[in-house]
Design a protein that fits this description.
Keywords: ATP-binding, Cell membrane, Membrane, Metal-binding, Nucleotide-binding, Phosphoprotein, Translocase, Transmembrane, Transmembrane helix. The protein is an alpha+beta fold. The chain has 24 helices and 26 strands.
């Protein structure tokens, strides 16, 4: 058993520092897996045994040797969403006054006659960039050569060494200002992402012997009575004992439609109690509650990286050394080989390369974009389990739908009864209802409902035959209820019903007893959703069902789906899906109840109605919290938008950097342009990434 702990990590300066710390941690014995999600500011620690304070001290120490200003807050105690405010942290500090003094000296230096101006520039540089140089030296002793601080220090000290004092100070100044705005922008994105997920309840009001006590939701045991006041978040899943109210479930489903609840209803944590005082009995521990599951899922989404993200990470590892190498060659070769080329001239050009060699624009903005896409989706009630699935969604060419409960309501109504062999309508329905009493299949529920009366509690044996129906023994009878194939399989002759509805056949003690015609209706939004998908250019839409061909065809036609495979047994659905895999990404949309294997097999498994269904959440890659099919085109559109923004950033950042490198090599672009190519580009890329959230 491994133990996982999550922390909010604050004060990390950049994404590659995060990666470095992560690597160090993973080499520490006693750690199974450590992960730092820079975009979300979350640190996940997995250890083989429970974390002891002593070991945690070691972990903290290790992190601090790398990044001294980092702090942790455990995430498993309720924390308010990210509060860190870059303004407070970076601006209103004594340090800030030193920067101001630095800028003051810097401007003064321009009016000071040489050679005294040098000292003023140097003092300004010390005040503005001293910290960066110190960090660079410290990191250098740990072997981080291509560290951003190091590159900036070399570039600016280099500028000083060739007499370009104002440039040296200015580059450092702009670098710091740029970093500040970058922090601000990253912080802003993070905050808006974390408020999206602000469904974590802070407290639960425990009701013990008529006395109330406010406790943290983690402390509440299963079966406890809790009180939820108007305006409060429901802290744990439970059953209503008293009170009626309207719940706002928008944080869970993205749907602002309020839901009325009364005594006996199940309520999910994360919804907001809008109108009445409620008493409920909890049915889960906080760790297993709906809220905890959703948060866990979203927090872990960063672990499954999209291909583009992985590409950028490995690209950055090559890009920086190559550009730095080019800078060295640029400084050394021309003065040696070209007549009249001075070292200081080419050294100046090489410095431009050093500044531009920082990959942070991409390393920070790309994960942030993916995370923004995942956050934006979750705000709409769509949980995407990782950047890789968001990317796959964008590439989806075929969508395969399960019929019952996905395209249709999954609520059947009895249409007609066709008794045979001496049975009458009442005995046919009664027998079928008795046999279906324990089945949760939508067909079974509709039969029990149509029977209306209490089906009784007599013990008997029931066997569910997936894809066929049920076989039940009670009151000395053996009853079969299911499709035509079930009766055929059991060697019973029956007259097939001509019908465009679903038909359920009944046999008692090996004798055909008649058939029931039942019908399910399409979901209201199905037609529109299919239309929207076609408008997104997804033309291959497929329906899979265990139901009869005739029924499936009629419904598919209404929806505008032309490819239908009916009468499939559960394992045949998997086979059918497998035969569709290959060309383009294939998504499967199901309700996760009896199609988990198919969900798992698809490139992207999309489960509908995920709220409250563990099976769906487990087996799928994308969970639609309510059962609105209209969320699928929304998810795909969002995936495409994310992809667009990611590539805009890649092309923009590499393009600008490339141009500056070329111009720098020819001596046209100087330090000022180089700083824009680094921090300016990073800032613009981050701001662009934050558009995903809107
Ligand atoms: N409990 C049951 N009572 C009666 N018939 C059943 C039952 N379970 C399954 N069947 C029969 O088996 C068929 C296939 O069932 P299965 O559960 O595989 O598919 P489904 O969920 O009903 O439909 P879909 O594949 O569209 O989701 C049903 O159409 C029905 O005819
Ligand atoms: Zn940088």
């Amino acid at each position: 058993m491994s133990h996982t702990r999550k922390y909010r990590i604050e004060g990390l300066s950049c994404a590659h520092c995060a990666a470095k710390v992560e690597t160090k941690l993973n080499s520490l014995s006693g750690i199974e897996h450590a992960r730092i999600d820079f975009a979300q500011g979350i640190f996940t620690l997995q250890t083989p045994s429970p974390l002891t304070p002593a070991f945690w001290g070691e972990v903290e120490h290790l992190v601090h040797t790398q990044e001294p200003s980092v702090s942790f807050k455990p995430l498993d105690t309720p924390v308010t969403p990210l509060q860190e405010s870059p303004w407070k942290e970076h601006v209103v500090t004594p340090r800030f006054l030193l920067y101001v003094l630095g800028v003051f000296l810097f401007s003064g230096a321009f009016f000071t006659p040489a050679p005294f101006d040098f000292w003023l520039f140097l003092a300004a540089y010390g005040l503005i960039g001293g910290e960066i140089v110190a960090k660079a030296v410290r990191n250098l002793t740990k072997g981080h050569v291509f560290d951003e601080n190091f590159l900036m220090s070399i570039a600016t000290i280099g500028a000083f060494s060739i007499g370009e004092y104002p440039e040296g100070v200015a580059v450092m100044l702009f670098y710091r200002v740029g970093e500040f705005f970058q922090d601000l922008a990253v912080g802003r994105s993070r905050r808006s992402i974390s408020t999206l997920m602000d469904i974590r309840p802070d407290t639960a009001t425990l009701l013990l012997d008529g006395v109330t006590k406010s406790v943290s939701p983690q402390e509440v045991l299963i079966g406890s009575k809790i009180l939820v006041r108007v305006g409060e978040k429901i802290p744990l899943d439970g059953v209503l004992l008293e009170g009626t109210s309207t719940l706002d479930t928008s944080a869970l489903t993205g749907e602002s439609l309020p839901r009325d609840v009364g005594k006996g209803d199940t309520v999910l944590s994360g919804s907001i109690n809008q109108t009445g005082l409620l008493t409920l009995q909890t049915t889960t521990l906080f760790a297993d509650s709906t809220v905890a599951k959703i948060l866990d899922l979203v927090q872990n989404a960063g672990a499954k990286k999209a291909k583009t993200e992985q590409f950028i990470t490995s690209f950055a590892k090559i890009y920086t050394p190559v550009v730095v190498g080019a800078a060295v060659l640029l400084a050394l070769l021309p003065p040696l080989l070209l007549e009249g080329a001075t070292f200081s001239e080419w050294f100046g050009r090489a410095l431009v390369f050093l500044v531009v060699s920082c990959p942070c624009a991409l390393v920070v903005s790309i994960p942030l974009s993916f995370f923004g896409g995942i956050g934006g989706a979750s705000k709409r009630g769509i949980l995407v389990k990782g950047g890789n699935f968001l990317e796959a969604l964008k590439n989806v060419e075929t969508i395969v739908f399960d019929k019952t409960g996905t395209l249709t309501e999954g609520v059947f109504r009895l249409q007609s009864l066709h008794p045979a062999n001496g049975f009458d309508e009442a005995s046919l329905l009664g027998t079928a209802a008795q046999a279906e009493r324990h089945s949760t299949h939508p067909i079974a529920r509709s039969i029990v409902q149509a029977f209306g009366a209490d089906v009784g509690q007599e013990k008997g044996e029931v066997e569910e035959l997936a894809g066929f129906g049920v076989k039940a023994r009670f009151e000395g009878k053996e009853v079969l209820v299911g499709n035509y194939a079930l009766l055929e399989k059991e060697g019973i002759t029956a007259s097939p019903q001509e019908s465009e509805q679903s038909v359920v056949y009944v046999a008692v003690n090996g004798v055909y007893a008649g058939a029931l015609c039942i019908a399910d209706t399409l979901k209201r939004e199905s037609i529109e959703a299919i239309q929207a998908l076609k408008e997104l250019g997804i033309t291959r839409l497929v329906m899979l069902t265990g139901d009869r061909e005739e029924v499936a065809r009629v419904q598919a036609q209404k929806l505008g789906i032309t490819e239908v495979y009916a009468g499939l047994l559960p394992h045949q659905k998997v086979e059918k899906l497998e035969s569709l895999l290959g060309q383009g990404k294939v998504a499967f949309v199901g309700d996760g109840i009896n199609d988990a294997p198919v969900l798992a097999r698809a490139d992207v498994g999309i489960a509908m109605g995920g709220v409250g269904s563990d099976a769906a959440i487990e087996a799928s890659d994308v969970v639609i919290m309510d059962d609105n099919l209209g969320k699928i085109p929304i998810a795909i559109a969002l995936a495409r938008k994310t992809h667009r923004i990611v590539w805009q950033n890649i092309v923009f950042a590499l393009g600008v950097k490339g141009v500056i490198l070329v111009l720098g090599a020819f001596g046209i672009a100087g330090m000022w342009e180089a700083v824009f190519g680094d921090v300016g580009v990073a800032l613009i890329a981050i701001l662009n990434a934050s558009r995903v959230l809107r």
